[in-house]
Specification:
Blueprint (H helix, E strand, L loop, with lengths): L9 E14 L1 H5 L3 H19 L11 E6 L6 E7 L2 H13 L6 E14 L1 H13 L7 H17 L1 H4 L8 E9 L12 H17 L5 E6 L8 E7 L3 H11 L2 H6 E3 L3 E6 L4 H5 L4
Antiparallel strand pairs: 1-3, 1-4, 2-3, 2-9, 4-6, 5-7, 5-8, 5-9, 6-7
Length: about 280
Amino acid sequence: MAELPAVPLTLEGAFVLHQMFRIRRPAWRALDDSRRQRISESAAHLLASFEERRAPDGRPAQSAAYSMIGHKCDLLLLHFRESLEDLHSAELSLAREELSEYLEPVHSYLSVVELGLYDSTIKTYGSLCEQSIQPHSQQWNAAIAEVLDRQAAAMKPRLYPEIPSAKYLCFYPMDRKRGEEKNWYQAPMSDRQRMMHDHGMIGRRYADSVRQVITGSIGFDDWEWGVDLFADDPLVFKKLIYEMRFDEVSAVYALFGAFYVGLRAAASELPRLLNAEL
């Protein structure tokens, strides 16, 4: 038998775009009240249609706005869509709004909802090996496709999730180390599976207080994964992430980017957000 693949199976779902903006407040405040109202109401109407949007097959494909805390940005728009084309369409729709003249893009992040299947990967690869099926052969690829189709059907709600209505959002990107001393991608599959299992067990203990959406961004953006945490109590972000720092997969192999924390703002609240009245 050829050497088994090192790459774990994954499932991909909704495409995701985070848009971070700074409000050009001096220019915005210089407008007369009626023009500010007209511009903000037009943008709020578009955002309201995005909040309730669904894909043609009924899957959630929404957007949400967040009033951000700190200097990194003032407004974060989060979009979940069924394709990259639909993400780009949402982006262009916002760009056509007159409001875009008063929003300075400061960052964005492109990714896709990803579910890692380490447990299923080891089980499937082992079963195919026992049947003397060669990796990457036609029979191997057909068996893998069948497993992925079955898993995707069972996990559809997680692959195409509703954007949680929780009050707070915490978003950050992350990598796995690829250094000379510690390289996640050279660790044996069984070790990675064990570490990810232990890592996931920590998250499960917080399932009642925080909703987590993991997105893959390899080939799409500068980091490898994006993490969105949604909760009604912001302290859970600190507690969960702190506890995970002691876990082997984070303590040894993880690198983290900038953290963005904000409060959910309904479309109807957009005019107040723009006027710094929230």
